[in-house]
Design brief:
The protein is an alpha+beta fold and 255 residues long. Helices cover 28% and strands 46% of the residues.
Length: 255
């Protein structure tokens, strides 16, 4: 009798541990489809807050981003990814990853330390760390993300998830409209993160803000390929985007 009881307890504990697996939670996150509002707060070189409305259908993700200065759309699917400004879709030269993507990639890579796995009364919480970067993820009892935070020295980003809703016909129609109904401008060059890590060394970063447009300038150097400057613009009008980049390239000593 004692042996049977011990076996039952053992299987019961195994079931609980399995239910709290971070891999299972993330796999559910990858395959899920939903609509949700995200409140994004960033603190670092500058502090900002924005509201995003996300439509996710499997691997397709449509993010409508609202900032105090400009609204734009980020779209990703099997066809690629684009930043859409005023019905013109620009293909970025580097892959875009939101905080949720970064968290998923790290979990799938297995290159992290699990600092906390907590079974809450109405959900679950995980804290993981890789090098100097820490992620805190809180899920509800249905394994929906409620809060996600990334932090490392001098920088943090926190996302609060609100108003989950089931997908509607209008959401699917909107996604189709952005996929097929916008003019696409493809990047003449695509750079992968792996390529940059392999061939280039990070040198410095610059930041500027003119009251409307925020510009991040990343400087890289390679003994084989020379100097590279990446310009990341937010809240920029598409009519000024090319002129702004051209002006910065002309004035930069490392372009």
């Amino acid at each position: 009798m004692k042996l049977k009881l011990l076996v039952i307890v053992f299987f019961g504990i195994s079931a609980v541990v399995y239910a709290l697996s971070l891999d299972d939670v993330v796999n559910n996150l990858i395959s899920s489809s939903y609509e949700v509002t995200r409140i994004v707060r960033e603190t670092g070189i500058s502090s900002s807050i924005r509201v995003e409305r996300v439509t996710k259908i499997g691997s397709y993700k449509l993010i409508r981003i609202n900032t105090p200065f400009k609204n734009y759309v980020w779209l990703r699917g099997s066809f690629g990814e684009y930043v859409i400004i005023n019905n013109i879709a620009f293909e970025p030269a580097i892959d875009l990853k939101d905080l949720e993507d970064q968290f998923i990639d790290l979990v799938l890579s297995k290159k992290y330390d699990l600092l906390l796995s907590l079974d809450l009364p109405i959900g679950y919480k995980f804290i993981i760390r890789s090098d100097f970067t820490t992620y805190e993820a809180t899920f509800d009892e249905h394994l929906k993300l409620m809060k996600l935070r990334k932090s490392y020295p001098f920088y943090s980003m926190e996302i609060s998830y609100q108003d989950y809703t089931a997908l509607s016909d209008s959401s699917s129609e909107e996604l189709s409209r952005y996929i097929f109904g916008v003019k696409k401008v493809r990047a003449p060059l695509k750079l992968s993160k792996e390529y940059l890590k392999k061939h280039f060394q990070w040198v410095a970063m610059d930041f500027s803000y003119n009251g409307q447009t925020t510009t991040y300038t990343l400087y890289f150097y390679s003994t084989a390929f020379g100097k590279l400057a990446l310009y990341l613009l937010t809240d920029a009008e598409n009519t000024d985007l090319i002129n702004t980049i051209d002006e910065m390239c002309s004035n930069s000593p490392v372009s």
